């Protein structure tokens, strides 16, 4: 099915040209996100496309891929732009779709601002060995805040759904951090908490940390934290609307094998990719869909 051929009347009350524009932002990113959102009804899928397109644009600014001269100033512009959305002010197609999504699904402005602030943390000087509180704040902003927007679009804005966003966002982000230690070191970044690095005598220089003897212990502690967050997310999902939580269950099911593969490989050789069974990931994701 080609998403751009769906009529606006079956989804959000937006001009089809605006919906197509937002979809092009999503598909141009090369992500599998569009395929994953195929399980949603048209209106919720289009709203998620708009949320993803927003995240993609601010992430590109932070990563230096947006071609702006002053990334921090561009992110500040996005703060003002978000405020404008809640006053009904639109500057382009993405804004127009976001305004409709915001009102239909009661999306909170603070969550958009949190995402922007998370991207700002990656803008400028690289993050290197943040303290525990800063790492948790980073995970909340770049992952859990996106989750808070997402669960509302999925169809559950309850306190339990926000608990899902809190725990699942942290689980996914910690898994990403543990998977990408070597890649991040190549960009002079080290997202591992300074307290654990000090405890296990791991240098706080990204390149030197890669093969430090204590890195494996740091990785295993953070992996257990991620697993704990997955467990708490699953517990919260059981208290939520089952249909609304389907995308969240599928995301958790897709990521859990990555964390397991990382724990099996360990962090003595973090530059070697973990062996993740693709059929297992697909099977677990399918099981989460039909659950």
Task: Explain this structure.
Helices cover 67% and strands 0% of the residues. The protein has 291 residues and is mainly alpha-helical. α3 runs parallel beside α6.
Largest sheet: none
The low-pLDDT segments are 1-9
Could you state the order of secondary-structure elements as H and E? HHHHHHHHHHHHHH
* Cα distance spanning the termini: 24 Å
Number of strands: 0
Rg over CA atoms: 19 Å
Share in helix: 55-70%
Number of helices: 14
Provide keyphrases for this structure.
single chain; 291 residues; mainly alpha; 14 helices; disordered N terminus; Isoprenoid_synthase_dom_sf; Trans_IPPS_HH; Squ/phyt_synthse; EC 2.5.1.103
Annotate the secondary structure layout.
Elements: H1 16-28, H2 33-36, H3 42-63, H4 71-85, H5 93-105, H6 109-121, H7 132-154, H8 159-179, H9 181-185, H10 194-199, H11 206-209, H12 215-237, H13 246-265, H14 278-290
Helix pairs in contact: 1-3, 1-5, 3-5, 3-6, 3-7, 4-6, 6-7, 7-8, 8-12, 8-13, 12-13, 13-14
In a few lines, what is going on in this structure?
Helix content is 67%, strand content 0%. It is mainly alpha-helical and 291 residues long.
């Amino acid at each position: 099915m080609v998403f751009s051929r769906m009529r606006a009347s079956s989804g959000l009350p937006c001009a089809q040209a605006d919906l197509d524009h937002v979809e092009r932002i999503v598909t141009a990113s090369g992500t599998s996100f569009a395929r994953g959102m195929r399980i949603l009804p048209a209106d919720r899928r289009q709203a998620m496309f708009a949320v993803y397109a927003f995240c993609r644009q601010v992430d590109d600014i932070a990563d230096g891929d947006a071609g702006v001269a002053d990334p921090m100033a561009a992110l500040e512009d996005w703060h003002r732009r978000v405020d404008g959305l809640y006053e009904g002010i639109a500057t382009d197609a993405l804004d127009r779709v976001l305004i409709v999504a915001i009102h239909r699904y009661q999306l909170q402005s603070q969550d958009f601002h949190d995402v922007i602030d998370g991207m700002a943390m990656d803008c400028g000087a690289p993050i290197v060995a943040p303290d525990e509180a800063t790492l948790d704040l980073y995970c909340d902003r770049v992952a859990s805040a996106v989750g808070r927007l997402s669960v509302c679009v999925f169809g559950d804005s309850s306190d339990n759904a926000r608990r899902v966003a809190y725990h699942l966002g942290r689980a996914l982000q910690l898994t990403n951090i543990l998977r990408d230690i070597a890649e991040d070191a190549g960009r002079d970044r080290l997202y591992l908490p300074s307290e654990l690095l000090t405890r296990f005598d791991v240098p706080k220089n990204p390149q030197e940390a890669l093969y430090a003897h204590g890195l494996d212990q740091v990785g295993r502690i953070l992996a257990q934290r991620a697993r704990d967050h997955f467990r708490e997310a699953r517990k919260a999902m059981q208290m939520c609307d089952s249909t609304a939580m389907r995308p969240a269950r599928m995301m958790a099911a897709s990521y859990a094998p990555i964390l397991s593969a990382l724990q099996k490989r360990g962090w003595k050789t973090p530059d070697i990719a973990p062996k993740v069974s693709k059929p297992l990931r697909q099977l677990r994701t399918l099981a989460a869909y039909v659950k």
